[in-house]
Design goal:
Structural class: alpha+beta
Distance between the termini: 36 Å
Largest sheet: 7 strands, antiparallel
Order of helices and strands: HHHEEHEEEEE
Helix content: 10-25%
Shape: globular
Number of helices: 4
Radius of gyration: 15 Å
Strand order of the largest sheet: 1-2-7-3-4-5-6
Length: 189
């Protein structure tokens, strides 16, 4: 079991990597053009964007991604997302994720480092994907033929809306997952 966890950690580290500065702008632009998520940029208080989240699993899985937090389009901090999942899952995938915050209260909750537990199902093959999830922070749904033809659908639940777009991989997942976000304001040591 330790070897499986080490292998999964190595895969996640390699898959997540460090996003280049321009990949944030590219990812934000992709979500602005991806159907439903585009409307949220005009209505949100803030958002957190993760250009690449790497996920892998075989019964037990995990995901890891680094991101940035923007308030009214101004960069205010850095964030890391970690996820542990248990259930029927096999394979690995990479995806982009954005979390919109409806108001300051929702952003404050995010910055506090609380957990979000969610149950979901997804399938990703190469760069085509479909997903749906429901959890304490709300419900999400998404589909993409390619990164350039992404579509998203969602609504605020408890002040947050989450959208994902498949980048690539081969994974089927029906699991219960817990996500944890850490936040570090810009300029903090």
């Amino acid at each position: 079991m330790k070897d499986l966890m080490r292998a999964a950690t190595l895969c996640l580290s390699l898959a997540a990597g460090t996003a280049a500065a321009d990949s944030y702008a590219d990812t934000i632009q992709m979500f602005k053009n991806a159907g439903g998520s585009g409307d949220f940029f005009h209505r949100c208080y803030a958002f957190a964007v993760f250009p690449t989240v790497g996920a892998a699993g075989f019964v037990v899985g995990g995901a890891l991604g680094k991101g940035r937090v923007y308030v009214h389009d101004q960069l205010v901090g850095d964030t890391t997302m970690g996820q542990v999942s248990v259930g029927f899952q096999i394979g690995g995938k990479a995806y982009s994720q954005i979390v919109f915050f409806e108001d300051k209260r929702a952003l404050d909750e995010f910055e506090s480092g609380t957990f979000e537990f969610a149950a979901g199902a997804s399938a990703v093959a190469a760069t085509a994907g479909a997903s749906a999830s429901a959890g304490t922070a709300g419900t999400t749904a998404g589909a993409s033929g390619t990164v350039n033809n992404a579509t998203t659908v969602g609504a605020y639940q408890k002040g947050m809306a989450v959208f994902t777009v498949a980048i690539g991989g081969l994974m089927y997942e029906a699991s219960i997952a817990g996500q944890h976000f850490s936040y570090k304001p810009r300029g903090a040591n």
